[in-house]
Task: structure prediction
Amino acid sequence: MDLRTKKFLKNKFRDYYQTATLDLPSELPSREWGFISYDSMPETIMYRHKAFGAPGEVRDYLVSMQPAHVYHSVAYYQYPDAPSMKEKNWLGADLIFDLDADHLPGAPQSYAEMLEMVKTESLRLLDFLTDDFGFPEDSITAVFSGGRGYHFHIEDKSVRELESPQRREIVDYVAGKGIDVKYLYKRKYLDGDSGTGTTTFRDKTEITSRHALKNPKIGWSKRITEYVASYLEEEMKKEKKDRFQELKKIEGFGKKAISRLEKISDEPELLEYFKETGRFDFGTAGNQRGMITKLVEVAIEEKRIHLFNPAQVDEPVTADIKRLIRLPGSLHGGSGMRVVTLGLDEIENFEPLSDAVVFSERAVTIKVMKPFGVQMKGIDLQVEEGVQQVPEYAAIYLMCRGVAEYGSK
Result:
């Protein structure tokens, strides 16, 4: 990035910050701040250990310094501007989730498709946060990063003092790591002639014959129930001889059971019964347990675990209790787009390549160094190497991406 390009971008960022709406974090004086400047590029140098006492100080800094990237700590500190982390005196931290297209398996090459895919993952994560963990919606803030993903900020006293290992466990749960189906079955204590609680039966349990999966409307039980139902529906699309190959390997799971499964799979009301109750209306509990456990094992082995709807989150971000996160309302120096705070009901209909674009459509002359494509504001723009004019918002995006320079020289 040459000096003319840096100067142009800094001027545009300054103009934006003079009137921008900034969603500052709560307890502002307790937050540490960090910045990356265009001046240091191509080196990426983080300038941190900064603190602000009032909102006006933040705006004044952004207008005067025009940073490429703006971050604040997820943590609260007694002395946020202290020069070392130890001296800051950590007081707690928000729980943060970062979903980035870079970490999604099989992410498409197209930027627009990539953003759509990561939005889907974000909605999956939201399901975990509200349904599985029960966080109140007013404690969750969703944020489009301005680049290739979404963040979720959770300000809740129940998580504020969690250490890194505990936060990693939350990520493991969300990601579906170490799923063991046996813990999802409803159990009952054994009893008999000697009586429940005697030496013979103390603490021994068995799977009940009444239910296969407990709480099929909640958590991983719900996701596995939905997965098994979708598996049955997909198997019915195959030739009869090719159906339920995984299940045919289960000892005791014979032709009669397969025939019953085919009937259930082919009748919506019977499949709905399974979704509602977590069990089938035939066979023993042990037989049902073996079938569902086998399907989960196969799904994991064949990397079909995503069908359970885990969310692909960046574990180091959530586990890092001293992390810096982008300021909502700031600009992303790698795209020129705005970091946008979203209501939870706004995520699904949010269109980042239109809704996060802040610059104008006036023509700007740029020198393109290599062919590049971008889809913004409903326009599929393809640029070739050489000097040309494009809308300002596209010019800034291309300059931020490092594929174009300002002007014709």
Observations:
- The longest helix spans residues 111-132.
- DSSP finds 13 helices and 17 strands in the chain.
- Residues 172 and 178 are 8 Å apart (CA to CA).
